[in-house]
Each structure stands twice: as C-alpha cells, then as structure tokens.
C-alpha cells in the first residue's frame, strides 16, 4: 500500500521544482539588478526538491522483487518517451531541428537529466542492495559530486560539464541522496523528536550558509544557484533529515494526490513554462520578477493539476504512457 505521507512529500517537492524552474528567469537580468538578486536569493530556499526525489526513489527501491530493473525502467521510460515525442513534435512544427542525442542527455524536455540519472541508479540498485552498508559509497560519491561541481564551475569553465544540463547529468552527482534512502531503509532507522529538532536547526543553518556562499560567488551564476554547491548540498541533506523525522508529526494528505502524479508533472511542466515565458518575456510583468514569479508559478501549477485530472480520465494504456499511473 502507498504511504500518503511520502506521496504528500512528493507533492510538495514537485511544486518546489516548478518554483525552481520559474525562478531561472530572474538570472537573465544584469547581476547588479534587483531582479537578478531576487532570483538568486529565492533559489537558496528551493534548491532541495530534486535531491528529495532521488532520496525517495532510493527509499522505495525494491530490487529484490522479480524483474525489478525491467519493470521500473519501463515505468520511467514510457512517460519520458511519450512526452519527448510531444516536445519533439512541437519543435518540428516550429521549424526546429530534431537532435536524436537529446533523448539520451535529457535535453529533449529541457530538464530530462533527472530521468537519465534515475534510470542509471535504478539499474545499479541491485548492486547497492547487495552491499551490507552503502555509507562508504555515500561519502565517496558526495566528495565526487562536490569536486565535480566546483572544478567545472570555478576552474574548467569552458568545458561542456560546466553548463547545464551536463553539470547535473553524471549519476554520481545525485547518488548520495539515492543511497541515503537505501541506507535508511536497510537499517530501519526510526524517526525521532530529537532528530526533528536537530534537522530543523540544520535546515536554517544551511539556508544561511547558502545565502552567504551565493553572495560570495557574485557573478558566477551557475554556481551561485547550483543545487550541488556545498551549502546547498548540506541544506538538501538537512531537508531530507527533516522530512524523514517529521513523518510521525506531519500530515500531508492534501498533497498526496499531487505526489502520485509528480513524475508526469516533472516531464510536462517545462512545456507549459517555456510557452508562458515566451509570451511574457519583454513585457512589463516580466520586468517585475517577484510578480512574474508569482503569476507564472500559479499558472503553471494550475495547468499541471488540470492536465493530470484530465489525463486520469483517459484509457488506461494512454494514461500509463502519459502520467505513468
């Protein structure tokens, strides 16, 4: 049976993902502008949802089930290919050139790196589960993730790996969060009130550190808004600890329905957001980023809810292809 708490967490996280991607518009303004600073500051509060999705994926991975890798891979790939075809068709209608590689690096939907990484981690899951503990791997991959982020954002800035989405594409960048989910499941660690208090303090500290690091980085936008810079990495870990320990005390049933369709929303929201930004960019509303952010977030989130509601009325085969549920 599904756990409504974790579905609720995914519902909140997908809203944060939408907010994350809406906020990127602010960084198109000059570094010294209010709009740019608004976007950078906002990102420090919402840089955690992708890490949370990888954590929950690891927490609920079940490689001991027969044919786990095949069935899980199909559930990941079918909606991705379906939505990729929709994005591709729209691009061809508008005269854009189709790049077959875009299916493999995730750029077919703009933010498909998540799908590529999740598929890699799914295929590796049986190996992770056969290990007595993955604590050592968590530390190794964390060091690799942070080294990768700072090296290509600060030193080899001309490399393709310094630019999104390739800066987020290697599986080891996100593996620590996935492995933490597996480790908690293996050890059966129970939530605690003390853990809740400590993790809440850690989240506050992490956000303050993120704000300070982003300010120090100045015009290095890629690293300032990165989800993998050291302070944001720490904040994501703290958020994961917070939501894990909050389970006995927090009810999120009102978000559970949204969480059930979070993967479909992830795959489709950029299609709506890109069209909306194309219409609003250059307008007076776009020039006021706090207003643009609020309006765009509301419109995209509402559209996603409506889309999922309609998709759930479709025949089961088509519904599985589009929303995976």
Structure description:
The chain is globular and about 55 Å long. The longest helix is centred in the first third of the chain and has 26 residues, at 68-93. The chain has helices spanning 4-23, 34-45, 49-59, 68-93, 102-105, 113-130, 135-155, 171-187, 193-217, 221-224, 230-245, 253-260, 262-280, 284-287, 289-311, 316-323. The protein has one domain (4-323). Helices cover 73% and strands 0% of the residues. The chain has 16 helices and no strands. The model has no long low-confidence stretch (mean pLDDT 91). Helix 3 crosses helix 11 and helix 7 packs antiparallel against helix 8 (171-187). With 325 residues, the chain is an all-alpha fold.
Strand content: under 5%
**What number of structural domains do the residues give?**
1
Percent helix: over 70%
Total DSSP helices: 16
Cα Rg: 19 Å
Unreliable runs? none
Strands, count: 0
Shape: globular
Classify the secondary structure makeup into a structural class.
mainly alpha
Span from first to last CA? 15 Å
Largest sheet: none
Q: What's the pLDDT, averaged over the residues?
A: 91
Could you give the order of the helices and strands?
HHHHHHHHHHHHHHHH
Tags for this model:
single chain; 325 residues; mainly alpha; 16 helices; globular
């Amino acid at each position: 049976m599904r756990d409504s708490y974790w579905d609720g967490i995914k519902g909140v996280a997908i809203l944060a993902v939408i907010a994350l991607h809406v906020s990127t518009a602010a960084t198109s303004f000059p570094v010294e502008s209010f709009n740019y600073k608004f976007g950078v500051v906002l990102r420090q509060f919402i840089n955690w949802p992708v890490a949370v999705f990888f954590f929950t994926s690891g927490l609920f991975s079940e490689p001991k089930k027969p044919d786990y890798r095949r069935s899980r891979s199909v559930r990941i790939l079918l909606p991705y290919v379906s939505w990729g075809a929709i994005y591709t068709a729209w691009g061809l209608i508008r005269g854009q050139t189709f790049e077959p590689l875009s299916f493999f690096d995730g750029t077919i939907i703009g933010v498909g790196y998540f799908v590529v990484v999740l598929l890699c981690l799914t295929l590796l899951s049986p190996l992770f589960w056969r290990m007595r503990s993955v604590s050592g791997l968590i530390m190794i991959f964390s060091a690799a993730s942070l080294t990768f982020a700072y090296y290509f954002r600060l030193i080899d800035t001309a490399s393709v790996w310094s630019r999104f989405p390739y800066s987020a594409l290697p599986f080891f960048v996100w593996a620590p969060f996935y492995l933490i989910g597996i480790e908690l499941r293996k050890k059966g660690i129970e939530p605690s009130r003390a853990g809740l208090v400590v993790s809440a303090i850690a989240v506050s500290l992490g956000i303050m550190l993120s704000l300070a690091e982003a300010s120090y980085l100045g015009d290095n936008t890629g690293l300032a808004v990165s989800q993998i810079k050291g302070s944001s990495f720490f904040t994501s870990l703290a958020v994961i600890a917070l939501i894990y320990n909050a389970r006995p005390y927090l009810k999120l049933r009102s978000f559970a329905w949204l969480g059930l369709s979070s993967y479909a929303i992830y795959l489709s929201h950029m299609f709506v957001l890109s069209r909306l930004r194309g219409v609003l960019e250059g307008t007076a509303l776009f020039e006021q980023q706090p207003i643009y952010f609020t309006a765009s977030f509301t419109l995209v989130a509402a559209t996603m809810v409506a889309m999922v509601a309609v998709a759930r009325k479709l025949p089961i085969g088509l519904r599985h292809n589009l929303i995976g549920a």
